[in-house]
Amino acid sequence: MKKAVILLSGGLDSATVLAIAQQQGYKCFTMSFDYGQRHRAELHASAKLAEAMGVTEHKVINIDLTAIGGSALTDSSIAVPQQHEEGIPITYVPARNTVFLSIALGWAEVLEADAIFVGVNAVDYSGYPDCRPEYIAAFEKMANLATKTGVEGHKLTIETPLIDLSKQAIIEKGISLGVDYSLTVSCYQADNEGRACGECDSCRFRKEGFRQAGITDPTPYQD
């Protein structure tokens, strides 16, 4: 059976990506990161999703991105914005996807996996530079140049099945695959119980996606 490493944050998008990979016949190995993020409830969500969706193995990798800061998600002195920001917002975590994909690449090589799945999106998203198709293409090229398996001809692909989908379309796809979105946490500043703020970019995109899909939003909110 073909194998895939899935970056599973515990959010709506990554849960949908996991379901898609399973539908495509991959044996799924999921990876989450405890990187000092403000929204740590997502780690509990990713563990619940991995168990509920029957993955082969789930890993949590510890890496402290608070050491460099530079983001509202890794520096407690920077507030999460309550209004949409023009340009690249302060919730962008410097080099996060590059770090995560690189570690996933290492595990994929050990597993002799065929693909890494990541839930980046270039439609309903906050404008992060490491969610763009050209970034993913560049990383895939690097991955096959930088690994023993790549040099020996076992090409790895970086799969981004959500990259051109609206949040509405992502939710509709996930529902069709049986994803339980009540297990997911998307909020940038969810409390310890996983309740969302309802105001950050991630919450706004999520709420609007459920509204457009005509599906009841299962998200617990703080107020």
Helix content: 25-40%
How far is the first residue's CA from the last residue's CA? 46 Å
Q: In angstroms, what is the radius of gyration?
A: 17 Å
Low-confidence stretches: none
From the structure provided, what is the oligomeric state, counting identical versus distinct chains? single chain
The main sheet comes to: 5 strands, parallel
Structural class, please? alpha/beta
What's the architecture, going by CATH?
A: 3-Layer(aba) Sandwich
What's the CATH topology label?
Rossmann fold
Number of strands: 5
Domain count: 1
Question: Which strand order does the major sheet show?
Answer: 3-2-1-4-5
Anisotropy-based shape: globular
Any overview of this molecule?
The protein is of the alpha/beta class and 223 residues long. It has one domain (3-213): 3-Layer(aba) Sandwich (Rossmann fold), CATH 3.40.50. The protein has helices at residues 12-23, 41-52, 96-111, 133-146, 148-151, 167-176, 201-213, and strands spanning 3-7, 27-34, 57-62, 115-117, 157-159. The protein has a five-stranded parallel beta sheet with strand order 3-2-1-4-5, sandwiched between helices. Helix 1 (12-23) links the parallel strand 1 and strand 2. Helix 1 packs across helix 6. The mean pLDDT is 94.
